[in-house]
Amino acid sequence: MRKGFAAGFNQFWVGAVFGVALSLVLVLIPIGWIASSLKDFLHLDATVTVTSEMGSNVEKVTALVREVSELLRQGSEAKKSL
Q1: Average pLDDT over residues 59-73
Q2: What span, in angstroms and rounded, lies between the C-alpha atoms of 13 and 34?
Q3: Cα(45)–Cα(62) distance, rounded to whole angstroms?
Q4: Residue 82 pLDDT > 70, yes or no?
């Protein structure tokens, strides 16, 4: 009786380890492959670069708008004083 139990117990653990390994292979490898494909397809590295460049351009445009509005304000004040 003990030998049968030990053999069954060993078979259980071999099956459990094999099942976990198989599930990891069947799940994690496709997820990694899909994530890599999406990264390549969406050009995520380029997206980050473009986003940061757009942020700096927005700051430059905002500064230019401030300067132009200040110049217009000064011009209108000078016109009023004439």
Answers
A1: 88
A2: 31
A3: 26
A4: no
* Whole-Å CA distances, 68 to 60, 63, 77, 78, 80: 12, 9, 14, 15, 18
CA-based radius of gyration for the chain? 33
The residues, ordered by sequence, that sit 6+ positions from 45 with a Cβ below 8 Å of its Cβ are 39
Taking the C-alpha atoms of residue 13 and residue 6, their distance in angstroms, rounded to an integer, is: 11
- The residues, any chain, with a CB within 8 Å of residue 39's CB and separated by 6 or more, are 45
Report residue 33 CA to chain centroid gap: 16
pLDDT of residue 33: 85
What letter represents residue 23's amino acid?
A: S
The token pair at 39 is 């990264």
DSSP-derived 3-state class of residue 66:
helix
Residue with tokens 């110049």: 71
